[in-house]
Amino acid sequence: MTAHEWQTGAGRAQDPAGAIRVDCHRGLRGPYTGMGSLLRVLVPRIQEARPDLVRAHLTEILSAAPELADLVGPGPETLTSLASPAERTRIYPANRTRRLAHGAVELLTAFAAEQPDPLAVAFDRVEDADHTDQEFLAILLRRCPADRIRVVVATRGEDLSDELVANLGRYSRRVAVPPSVRDSASASDSEARDQDALLHAFIEADGTSTDPAERAAYDRADPDQRARLHEEHAAALDARGERSLWFGAIPYHLEHGTDPAGAGVQALYDATRHCGAMGFYRMVIELGLRGRALVDPATRMEEFWLLSTRVSSAHVALGETLVGEPTYHELRARFADPELHMSMSYALAMLYTRHHPPELRDHRVARAHINNAIAIATLLPDPAERAFQTVFQQNGLALIEMHQGHLDEALRLVDEGAHRLSVELPERAHQLHRSVLLHNRAKVCLALGRKEEALGDFDQIVEVDPNYPDYYFERAEARRQLGDVAGALIDCDTAIAISPPFWELHYNRGDIRAALGDTAGAIADFGYVVELEPDQIQARTNLICLLLDAEQPDRARRELAAGLDLQPDQPELLCLRGQERLTAGDPTAAAADFGRALAADPELVPALAGRAEAAFQHGDRAAAAADLRAALRFQADNSDLWFNLGAVLEAGGDPDAVRAYTEALSVAPDEARAEIQAGLDRCHAAAPAGVR
Predict the structure, then answer these.
(1) Which whole number is the average pLDDT over 433-445?
(2) Which terminus, N or C, of the chain has the lesser number of Cβ atoms within 10 Å?
(3) For residue 153, what are the domain limits?
(4) Helix, strand, coil: what percent of the chain each, to 5?
């Protein structure tokens, strides 16, 4: 099989025959510069041959290459995507980009599988790619068959994500490419060009040129001439009508043009707003910091505030809360604007009740911040804004109440807020936040055990926002708790049909299928989960156990080996291998695996039980009893552990076997009681007279 290729070094190798070469430098189009460029080449061909494939992947296509809407039509809309910036109160999780990348990979592999010849794609300047492209490439290398899509990744630097480096090492052969004759010729060409040609070349490279002669010409040029050229090139790019240029090259030219603090800041802010709405948080940070650097906070408070908070909110969305928090305090210390303080108080409250690592959360601090936000909201002069902001801030308080276990109070706040919006605002205003309140009400009702009410709320949400997959995912759980397993399965199917690949959906559907006795379906779902995300251990262990139940031991062993290849010290997988070796009659090797598993997780009960069995087979009853007693410290109501302890003690003539069997009998299910009673009877029969 032809391998993928990783080209490193200052030169450029010959592309594979017929290869599509795309430049991944994020300065060109921002997020998904490389993936979007590839889609702009291939989607017209796919649309002609397989329009159904395009329809199935509209979200992924339009997220990376929005200008393709002219060809493929609009994607599915949700209340989130339709909300105006002022009414947008929901953000996407950071892992949404993984779903988009998986969907794009599946689009490409499905198309390539039907082509007479393999595709070849060369991705250049990957070290300068945004996180979104590097994530996409890491997944593409792992999931696409190299005999149908040959991937060439070219890098000249080392600024690569850990995942991409790992997958390049695992799935491609590395080729060092020294400077070539072509590179020397290019250098000679630079020397032959005059100052004006070099300057124009630098501008037309959109800030991505690495040619020293072009850079020098740009630095020598008159600043006013440079600014005019940037402005002219921004206009030329805008005339192409390709929206993705507004997330890379056009903001760059405008921030270096004739009005950097005006048009430049506006372009950067608009780009951060789009990238934030899409979940492209690394690019939000880069663009936002560039915009903030152009703004004088003393004279342009609002722009400085909004750019700053977009950066800090992006850090929070990425889990970097300790990086994001200081900005909120900086803004509070710098400005005395009431709405800014309300916004910062809300943000800090959410940090301390939800976003910070568990050891840093403090609901009392969160409550202090949210009460400040509520107090300011109630004093806003505009009645409509006062009503909305008060309800919005009180929804934050409801979350804190929920986290503190005050579910009834949380429900009261949510109900009160929904009623106030319905009374004081126009019917169509803030539709997204109304749905957020209803969604929160459903979650609180579910936590309160008011399952029918929760289901009714989810039904209403799905009716008003039918293209948002998470609602089906959560309604499936409500239905499952009500015993409607078939309905839960339908909701999972619907969510899967309208969403880019979303491993949690397939995990839940696998659970439901297993409960319904659909072993083949459950195997398919858990298998797909580990194809999407190989480090999902619970899905892999479920898959292995189901494969064993389905009498597919060879595939079970392959899945186990694949998991341990990726994570050699993963305790659950080591435990499974120990159990397999125990079954195969090798207690020594099994004991070693159980020992390694327990070194990583001393409370892993199956490993303690397995090591006890291995010790018992070796005749070491004392070690077996010790491990079983240790396991019972973590699972005192496990009848199997008590029974096994009874058996070990009985074999050694230890009278404590009676207590172990008695404890087992007290917690055993009906179907196990006969065997336990038999053990207890044997102990009584063997006891000396007067001891019973």
Answers:
(1) 93
(2) N
(3) 4-179
(4) 70, 5, 25
Helix (H, G, I), strand (E, B) or coil at 219: helix
Cα angle 117, 122, 126; round to 5: 155
Give the pLDDT band of residue 1 (cuts 50, 70, 90): very low
What average pLDDT does the structure give for the chain? 94
Q: Which range is least confidently modeled, 54-68, 128-142, 173-187, 208-222?
A: 173-187
The 149-155 sheet, strands edge to edge:
20-23, 119-124, 149-155, 4-8, 172-176
Structure letter (DSSP) for residue 150: E
Query: Residue 181 has what pLDDT?
Result: 44
* Block residue for tokens 């293209």: 467
Nearest to 414 by CA among 386, 442, 389: 442
Q: Are the C-beta atoms of 27 and 237 separated by less than 8 Å?
A: no
Q: Is residue 230 part of a domain?
A: no
Q: How many domains does the chain have?
A: 1
Contact between residue 144 and residue 112 where contact means Cβ atoms under 8 Å apart: yes
CB 278 within 8 A of CB 63: yes
User: What is the C-alpha to C-alpha distance for residues 201 and 650, in angstroms, rounded to an integer?
Assistant: 87
Is there a domain that residue 589 lies in?
A: no
The H-assigned helical ranges of 294-337 are: 301-317, 321-334
Indicate whether 85 belongs to any domain. yes
Residue pair 48/64 in contact by the 8 Å Cβ criterion: no
